[in-house]
Design brief:
With 500 residues, this protein is an alpha/beta fold. The chain folds into 3 domains: 89 residues, Arc Repressor Mutant, subunit A; 108 residues, Aspartate Aminotransferase, domain 1 (Alpha-Beta Complex); 236 residues, 3-Layer(aba) Sandwich (Aspartate Aminotransferase, domain 2), CATH 3.40.640. It contains 17 helices and 15 strands. The relative contact order is 0.13. About 6% of the residues have low confidence.
Length: 500
């Protein structure tokens, strides 16, 4: 227990020196002690009152730190006994091991070519990139439960327009020239500051590379980290964009099952232990919405460190968590520097902005810059400057707070409206995200349901599209964040008619 007190004391000192919230400094110090083994599994922590007295912190501060640690699975409370470091942390996952040499790449897969496309081009053409068939280029009639769409009707258009005009007036000609392939420097600095506070990732602006959306970031990861035929883990079911990026790089895709704890690392090692890369969405798994458990996170990081492999962390929907504080990012707890972090402004601002970013370990930065120079050189600089202003002037933080409240209300409304359909459609509420999974009866064909509703102007997306090998239960995805109350009612009425 004395080690816990010493760790807490350092947290108090760090809080005063770094001007960070006291609870967060204490949380970081205790988490670090757990991950390094200083606070071993089963260690009993001092009572919150005792720790508060001995460190000079308020009891609420200590309780807030404990609450965050318990929410992420680092500690557990035992009724009538106290608070302990969780037993689920095996010692081998807490120790840094020397990674062996990477094994030779596997032979590239065979494929049937066509007269028009290369073998890789044919595979890419068959890899569906995004779930937007039949709606691109036209507005659906009535409602559309489009996934991945925030509440655009509540976007601060006036503020954005003023910032855009002001930026053009002040520095238009300068921003119309070629720029750094890493991105507009003030935006990279703003991202580094935001990601440190929001996701626990401490990085330099030099590690941030601004991309044209998260899809380009995934493409860059696949391009600079994989040779043709290299094995890559992908979640099953998983994000179609990640699948397309790996196909584009001629990777050998290894579908790994997903359950309520996220990607099954043990199953991945059984399928292909020497995979070169794993593409994951740990904060809010797409499409099922689960959060990867701490045990799985540590196991994945340990696997990557031992095998000289890479983890591409697509932090999908991490900003939109409605219960409790967000879990720390994989990159924040990675002691091996094997994680590449991918973020985007498409879901938090608007999709057509097409701005994303990569946070790379220092040794990979030059590779990402080379990839950028070989494609579009850099993302749109004026838009980068406006986003930087939006963040620096505090609009971004306020917008996120408003969106969290509005999106949560819309999720609750969708669940209420769908209650009469419970015999045919079972909605599973989620702690975060922008869509819900609606489970259908086992005899239903989710693709047929999606086609039938689309003919009525309502867009839902079949879950089965996201599976490669795992057994798929029929379900549809319903995006609620970008759907107004009136359109939501119309959409549910249409779904009721189709399903009955």
């Amino acid at each position: 227990m004395s080690s816990a007190r010493n760790t807490a004391a350092r947290g108090r000192a760090n809080s005063r020196s770094a001007a960070v919230p006291a609870y967060k400094a204490l949380y970081e110090q205790l988490r670090s002690g757990i991950l390094t083994g200083q606070l071993a599994a089963g260690t009993r922590l001092p009572p919150s009152r005792t720790l508060a007295t001995e460190t000079g912190l308020s009891r609420n501060t200590v309780l807030a730190a404990f609450e965050q640690l318990q929410a992420e699975g680092y500690i557990i409370g035992r009724q009538g006994s106290g608070t302990y470091v969780a037993d689920l942390l095996p010692e081998q996952l807490l120790a840094t091991s020397e990674p062996p040499n990477r094994l030779a790449a596997a032979s590239p897969p065979s494929a049937v070519t066509t007269a028009k496309l290369s073998a890789r081009g044919e595979r890419l053409a068959l890899a569906r990139r995004v779930p937007l068939p039949s709606v691109l280029g036209r507005e659906p009639r009535g409602t559309s439960f489009l996934i991945g769409l925030p509440a655009l009707d509540a976007f601060p258009f006036e503020t954005w327009g003023k910032l855009y005009c002001e930026r053009l007036r002040k520095s238009g000609p300068r921003l119309m020239r070629y720029d750094d392939p890493a991105g507009y420097r003030p935006l990279r600095e703003a991202i580094a500051g935001y990601i440190s506070t929001a996701r626990g990732i401490h990085c330099l602006a030099d590690q941030v590379i601004v991309t044209s959306g998260s899809q380009q970031a995934l493409e860059f990861c696949a391009r600079i980290l994989l040779d043709p035929g290299d094995a890559a883990w992908i979640e099953d079911p998983g994000y179609l964009g990640a699948r397309a990026a790996l196909v584009s790089a001629s990777a050998r895709i290894i579908p790994v099952p997903v359950d309520e704890n996220g990607l099954d690392v043990t199953a991945g090692q059984a399928l292909e232990p020497n995979a070169r890369l794993a593409a994951v969405t740990p904060s809010h798994q797409f499409p099922l919405g689960h959060t990867m458990s701490l045990e799985r996170r540590l196991a994945l990081i340990d696997w990557a460190g031992r095998n000289d492999s890479w983890i591409v962390e697509d932090d999908y929907d991490a900003e939109f968590r409605y219960l409790g504080r967000p879990h720390a990012a994989l990159m924040a707890i990675d002691s091996h520097q094997r994680v590449i972090y991918v973020g985007t402004f498409s879901k938090v601002l608007f999709p057509s902005l097409r701005l994303g970013y990569v946070i790379a370990p220092p040794d990979l930065v030059d590779g990402f810059l080379a990839a950028h120079l070989s494609t579009d050189m850099h993302a749109h600089v004026i838009d980068q400057a406006v986003v930087a202003d939006f963040i620096e002037q505090g609009h971004f933080a306020r917008h996120l707070r408003r969106m969290r409240v509005l999106h949560r209300e819309r999720q609750q409304q969708l669940v209420r409206l769908a209650e009469p359909l419970s015999e045919n459609l079972r909605l599973a509420p989620s702690d975060g995200g922008l869509h819900l999974v609606g489970w259908l009866a086992d005899h239903r064909d989710d693709r047929a349901v999606a086609k039938a509703t689309l003919r009525q102007g309502v867009h839902v997306w079949p879950l089965s599209t996201h599976y490669l090998r795992s057994e798929a239960k029929p379900a549809i995805l319903l995006g609620y964040a970008g759907t107004t109350a009136e359109d939501m009612r119309r959409g549910i009425a249409t779904l009721s008619a189709v399903l009955s």
